[in-house]
Amino acid sequence: MNHTLLKGHARFFFHHQMQMLMQTLEGEERLIPLAEVKAVFFVRSFTGDRLRKERKEPGPDSPRLGEGVHVTFLDGETLIGRAVGYKPEDRGFYFKPADPASNNEIVYIPQTALREIVVGDLEG
């Protein structure tokens, strides 16, 4: 993984395929192997808010659908939220952050990008 951040629009993203077609914000089309991505973040805004601190624990307004998960990526970043239909034997899973105001609406996380995943009830 070379830690390159690509922003753009996923075109024809299907998690069961081995790659995805992406159009960068500059208009370049790129074919990206899913084995090379940390995650596919479906965001509200490409600019986000760098000053906002995302809540790292669930609250009463957190999503309730799915299993509670705490994921740690290979680079050390951690996310807390819910995974719908998580199965360790699958290539990846969809994740919904615990913070409903997160810029990440949903995230597709390949299993190969994870150092650890803890599955269990989230408090809140």
How is this structure best summarized?
With 124 residues, the protein is mostly beta strands. The protein is 0% helix and 42% strand.
**Which percent range fits the helix content?**
under 10%
Tell me the radius of gyration: 14 Å
CATH topology of the domain at 38-119: SH3 type barrels
Spans where pLDDT lies below 50 across 5 or more residues: none
Biggest β-sheet: strands ordered side by side in the sheet: 4-8-7-6-5-9
CATH architectural group of the domain at 38-119: Roll
Helix count, DSSP H or I runs of 4 or more residues: 0
Mean pLDDT: 82
Count of individual beta strands: 9
Structure classification: mainly beta
Distance between the termini: 34 Å
The largest sheet, given as strand count, sense and whether it forms a barrel, is: 6 strands, antiparallel
Determine and state the CATH class of the domain at 38-119: Mainly Beta
> How much of the polypeptide forms β-strand, as a percent range?
35-45%
The run of helices and strands is EEEEEEEEE
Shape: globular
Describe this structure in words.
The protein has 124 residues and is an all-beta fold. The protein has a domain at 38-119: SH3 type barrels, CATH 2.30.30. It contains no helices and nine strands. The protein has strands at residues 8-11, 19-24, 29-33, 40-43, 67-73, 78-84, 92-97, 104-110, 114-119. The strands form two sheets. A six-stranded antiparallel beta sheet has the order 4-8-7-6-5-9, with no helix packed on it. It is globular, with a radius of gyration of 14 Å.
